[in-house]
Amino acid sequence: MLIKRFNDLSISMRLLAGTMVTALGLLFFASEVVYLDAKSALELQSSGRLAALMPSIGSLVHELQKERGRSAGFISSGGGAFSSELPSQRTDTDNVLAQAKAELDKLDLSDLPETLGMAVNHARNDLSQLDAKRVAVDSFDITVPQMAQYYTTTIEALLEIAHELEVASHNDRISKAMISYLSFLRGKEYAGRERAMGAVGFGVGRFETEIYDNLIRFIQAQKIYFSDFTDLADPALIGLFNETVSGPVVDEVQRMRDTALASVRTGDLRGITSAQWFTAITEKINLMRDVEGVISKAMIDDVNSLTSASWRSLVLDLVISAAVMLIGGFLLRYVSQSITRPVADVTHSMERLSGGEIDFEVQGTDRKDEIGVMARALKVFQQAAVDKLQLEKEAEEERRKAEQERKQIFDQLEYAVSQVSGALGRLAEGDLTAYIGADVAAEYEKTKQDFNAAATQLQEALGTVSQAANEIRSNSGGIAEASEEMSRRTESQAASLEETAAAVAQIKETMKSTVEAATKASEMVATAKGKAQRGSDVVNSAVSSMRDIEESASRMNEIIGVIDEIAFQTNLLALNAGVEAARAGDAGKGFAVVASEVRALAQRSAEESNQIKALISESATSVEQGAELVRQTGVALEAIVVEVGEVDKMVGEIFAGAKEQDLSIEEINMAIGQLDQATQQNAAMAEEATAATRMLSQESDHLVELVSRFVIDGDGDNRGDHVDHDGPDVDEMPAQAVNM
């Protein structure tokens, strides 16, 4: 969540946040360094103040040591020694004590270790008894050990303060210097104790065991503490110590020390008095005091140097920290501005670009950093926007041109559709002379030509159908007349056959009386010959009629074949017209209906023509059979005529062949019966052919009526008597063509 909020901040705010974090980090580390330096400086300063007390304590210890030694000599000599030196020593002690008290009073014990306060209070308590102890010394109310114990305890309390001051120090170098200084003070303290013990021994003229042991212990303690000093002190101070604390004075003290130590065995002090011992060892201690002064001064100088160096380091760290903060601030500000300003420029450029403004200079494209990459990318976007604007202008121009072209195409299409629609409307109304004569666009020219070609083919087809229908109507009339004539002739033939049958029957009857009627036979034969001759003529006429009927039937078959072919072509043209009408869409629906009707009529005409063709085929077969019978009848009649002609010649033979003749006549009667039956069948078929022909005539009339609904030629003649099968040229439209 915090990361998202941080990412939502502006770059300047994020840089500011980063700068603040960096600055706070630098400030923290600088503060830490300054704090540590300040702490070190303050600790050094505090340690310096503590170290500054040590010389005062050392001076006070030194004076108390001198006072302790003189007091011991004064008590042990019963006032004979140091009676004049002791008061002046006490004055020196008081002066140093006043200075030391003043230094101790300056300490703020609340900020120091508790043990240091306890040591100070302990020393103050011991020092408060100093005047009383002095009175006791003057009145000899205190023994040397008691007096020495007091001074030693007081000195130890002061040295304990020095020790606590060293413990309170927080600087190792100062602590080391203070420890070495304290070790030197303790060694010098034991030298003072040695002086006191020697003054006592030399004062009483002997070294008792206790004094001797203390003397030995004090000498050893000096060696230990001075050894600690040489281990911790600066080599220069060690050299100073070795160089200063040497020479005749030190040798004299060593000689007196050896005499005192040897006196335990020899009992001889070699005349060394307490004053001599005290004077000699005091000179040695004074040499130590001189070294102590140098050591304390070196320590104070070192503390002051460290403190000054620490303060200088603090000031330097402050200056460096301030300089780093200042330089870092300026650097961060410069870096921030070197980022935020170019980013702001790029952002402003982006805003201008997103606002649609493109005519401006993108800043920072010459930079080598990421902002330069962004600026150059923005420059690319700007150029892309310029190119896009140019492309949009070009696209708008192209769109405008395309719109104009689409409008022009639409106008051309609308114009062409209106032409086709008008022509289809006229076709729907039956005007097959409806052509598209106006100029249309090149892409619609083929549609125009196809429409005109389709109209031409439809006109030709319907013209052919009309002509065929008229021919069918005309031929069907002739066929009907021929059929009726054949029917009449067949009826006449039937009547003749009946008469022939009656005559044959009569012949048969008369054959019985042939002999009796021989006279009348010639007349009857003559009559029969005439009738036979007429029958032959009738048969010949019937044969001729049969031939005509056969020829008419053959011709009707041909006509029906033409009608069937016309119906097939009409059906095909109507199918093509339906396809073209379907391509034309809604505008061709009317024409599609007409084409469907024409197709249905063509199919019906084909079916009827097939039926007529079948009937005519059957009639032709029957006619052929009838013609064959008629021919046979003609042959028979011719034979009868010949035979009747010979009747006269054969009258004499009539009687002989009467019975055979009777049988022949019976056979003739049977043949005539068969001929009569065939004739009756021919009459029936003739009547059926007549009925079919009449129906064909009616259908032809209906077809002619349907075709007459269409305007086929340019004069508006709907009879369809004449069709130009070549059709009009598509490019040369008739006057009735649709114009715009």
From TrEMBL:
Coiled coil: 379-412, 441-500, 668-695
Source domain of life: Bacteria
Region annotation (Disordered) ranges: 715-740
InterPro entries (UniProt xref): HAMP_dom, MCP_chemotaxis, MCPsignal_dom, Nitrate/nitrite_sensing
Single biological process term from Gene Ontology: chemotaxis
A Pfam family hit: HAMP
Broad class of the protein's primary localization: membrane
A Gene Ontology cellular-component term: plasma membrane
Residues annotated as domain Methyl-accepting transducer: 468-697
UniProt keyword Coiled coil, yes or no: yes
HAMP domain residues: 337-390, 416-463
Basic and acidic residues: bias regions: 716-728
Sorted UniProt keywords: Chemotaxis, Coiled coil, Transducer
Molecular function via GO: transmembrane signaling receptor activity
Subcellular location: Membrane
CDD domains, alphabetized: HAMP, MCP_signal
Family, similarity comment: Belongs to the methyl-accepting chemotaxis (MCP) protein family.
Name under which the protein is recorded: Methyl-accepting chemotaxis protein
Species this chain originates from: Hoeflea prorocentri
